[in-house]
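To: structure desk
From: M.T.
Subject: fold request, one chain
Message: Could you run this one when you get a chance? Sequence is below, nothing fancy, just the single chain.
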Amino acid sequence: MRFYYPDVPVIPLPPGHRFPSGKYDALRAVIDRDHILGRADLLPAPLASRDDLLRAHATEYVDAMLAGAVSPDTMRRIGLPWSPTLVDRSRATVGGALASGRAALDMGLSGQLAGGTHHAHRDFGSGFCVFNDLAVAALTLLADGSVSRIAIVDTDVHQGDGNAAILGGDPRVYILSVQGAKNFPFQRVPATRDVDLPDGTDDATYLAALGNALHDVWDFRPDLVFYLSGADALAQDRLGRLALTHAGLMTRDRRVLEQCRQTNIPVAIAIGGGYAEPIEASVEAYANTFRVAADLWQL
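Reply: Done. Structure tokens follow.
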């Protein structure tokens, strides 16, 4: 099996910036240290091409971002300063989603140690998201005939407005978004199904709501699932506002991934959110998602 990581330097950010860009390298270190992926290959994610990006994004936006000609207002909405490294990192995230989707179709399971850039819309980025990895991957795989139906199971605590804006209304795509009811973004685009949870939601309440919603995903009978495993539902997360434990998140991961395994639906994993204090708690949540996958597929 094949998994992917962004082989790009850490995004340069000013001191005190609230985006913990080093968390991805920290995850890679835990994955390597604990041999979590077993016999699977961990490969550099390919950089998405301009043509790839245009599957989901407007030409003017893509070209401006690639050239560094975006406006200050555009970058303020994204929340990150423009840099060549940011562009390469964003392209690697999209490339990793597409590569992991193809690998999952070949072998049943794949994923990347990044991803979940679900706030990026067709003609603008938002919420630390430049390009929308899952939207590009879904539209590409649908266009080339690799699949007829795709489901996105999005458990980032922030609603996937970009996914819904780009893919919403396409009968070939089912989007389940399980999120905090009173969290970013405050102007939302409805997904196929939104599950809104109150602040302080605990493990049992969360898992019951997820279980109910997943029935509709399986009834859709997707050819491929993109699973966005959000670490920001963790109680320690600064931006999450829910109250799940690591055990609760692992149970969530197992319920999604085990159903894919049992029904032979290929699944590609992306990770999202993750702003805990200390950040090691988020890194552990990410790593646990891959631990669950490795256990189910006996990697």
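Reply (cont.): The mean pLDDT is 97. Let me know if you need anything else for the meeting.
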